[in-house]
Design brief:
The protein is an alpha+beta fold and 346 residues long. Helix content is 37%, strand content 26%. The strands form five sheets. A nine-stranded mixed β-sheet has the order 1-2-6-7-10-15-16-17-19. A hairpin with a 6-residue loop joins strand 8 and strand 9. Helix 2 packs antiparallel against helix 7, helix 7 packs antiparallel against helix 8 and helix 8 packs antiparallel against helix 9. It is globular, with a radius of gyration of 24 Å. The N terminus is likely disordered. The protein binds adenosine-5'-diphosphate (ADP) and magnesium ion. Magnesium ion binds next to helix 8.
Length: 346
């Protein structure tokens, strides 16, 4: 009797030990961090993922980014976009990724009355934002180039794009957000449940941190160094467009930013200095962060009320923060930051 009890107890202890060993093995596995940094799409990207398969999955992600860049680059002569831009009005066949990116851009262009317009490229080029030979084009030159813009003139059929002769497109306002979204889908398929993909400041998150807590993201100070506050988020995209990201200054100190208002052909001057969009889709976030930066707070708020499906945090040149109710409880201003904060309710 005593012997059998001892055996049972031993078996019980053994099974506890095995259970604990099992726990620590899976926990260790999920905490295993892999990260990779690379320069692509004219920006620095840093991908961090957790789990035993993370390292291999990130290596493949880097190849995937290279493939996407090869489709969308405006300067690489073999890219799909380069071919569209030099097609002399002939249809050009494109990949499903490019078709989706363009179709979505056109939908947002339509909804924002052209605040997002992929045909703005000739002006981006004229202002020197492609070759970094910055200049201020004369009004007449801007007027002339504006006649070569207008998203309505793009014809998108299944698998092909036709652009009138002389027009050119640029998917720079949406490509990085879509890249983050595609990478997250890929990594989730590889079994990754926790990752932070920083695509040049466009963040795409998979799950929460490996310990189960939320990711804590700094919101860049548009007026200086560091961050103004922290946003908690998980399993979504967080994308910021800001006038401080890329700009040049003239002799009098005036700043010219890389986001242009397609209505004027000049740098956007809507009173917003930073627009952060939070939603599941990185593509939606990237498209809207650029569009709302151009539209300004009033039209941006109207857009949010009409279409919804995302949260946003706007910073105005008057030191105001406007944020939607869905993230109000998840954003905390850093000590010492003085902003008037307004929460929007639907
Ligand atoms: P970033 O990619 O620098 O984070 P955005 O997503 O706002 O910022 O994209 C800005 C880029 O999009 C510019 O560098 C330019 O190539 C292009 N662009 C600028 N203004 C517009 C616009 N109104 N519509 C579409 N694309 C734009
Ligand atoms: Mg954008």
């Amino acid at each position: 009797m005593a012997g059998r009890q001892f055996t049972r107890l031993r078996a019980f202890i053994l099974s506890i030990c095995l259970f604990l060993a099992g726990c620590s093995a899976t926990q260790e596995d999920s905490l295993q961090e892999a990260s990779t940094g690379l320069f692509a799409m004219e920006t620095y990207m840093e991908l961090t993922a957790y789990g035993g398969s993370a390292e291999t999955a990130l290596e493949q992600s880097a190849d995937y980014i290279t493939e996407l860049e090869a489709m969308w680059s405006v300067t690489d002569e073999s890219s799909e976009i380069y071919r569209v831009n030099h097609s002399n009005g002939q249809p050009v066949s494109v990949s499903p990724e490019t078709e989706k990116l363009l179709r979505f851009s056109l939908e947002i262009a339509e909804r924002t009355n052209g605040a997002l317009d992929p045909t703005i490229y000739p002006l981006i080029n004229a202002w020197g934002f492609i070759d970094q030979e910055y200049r201020i084009p004369a009004d007449e030159e801007i007027e002339n180039l504006l006649t070569l813009t207008g998203y309505e003139q793009i014809t998108l059929a299944e698998g092909s794009v036709t652009l009138p002769q002389g027009m050119q497109i640029d998917l720079g306002a949406v490509g990085k957000g879509y890249t983050g979204e595609l990478l997250a889908d890929y990594l989730k398929n590889q079994g990754i449940t926790s990752a932070l993909l920083d695509i040049g400041g466009n963040i795409q998150l998979i799950g929460g941190r490996p310990d189960g807590s939320s990711w804590k993201l700094g919101i860049q100070n548009p007026f200086g160094d560091g961050s103004i506050g922290v946003l908690e988020a998980e399993d979504c995209a967080v994308v910021t467009s800001g006038g401080y990201e890329r700009y040049f200054t003239d002799d009098s100190g005036n700043k010219y930013c890389h986001i242009l208002d397609p209505a004027t052909g000049k740098p956007a001057d809507s009173g917003l200095v930073s627009v952060t969009i939070i939603a599941d889709s990185g593509l939606l976030c990237d498209a809207l962060s650029t569009a709302i930066f151009v539209m300004g707070s009033e039209k941006g708020i109207e857009y949010w009320r009409t279409y919804g499906g995302f949260d946003m945090l706007l910073i105005t040149s008057e030191n105001e923060i406007i944020l939607t109710e869905g993230i109000a409880g998840r954003f905390a201003l850093n000590n010492g930051q003085s902003y008037a904060v307004q929460v929007l309710e639907a």
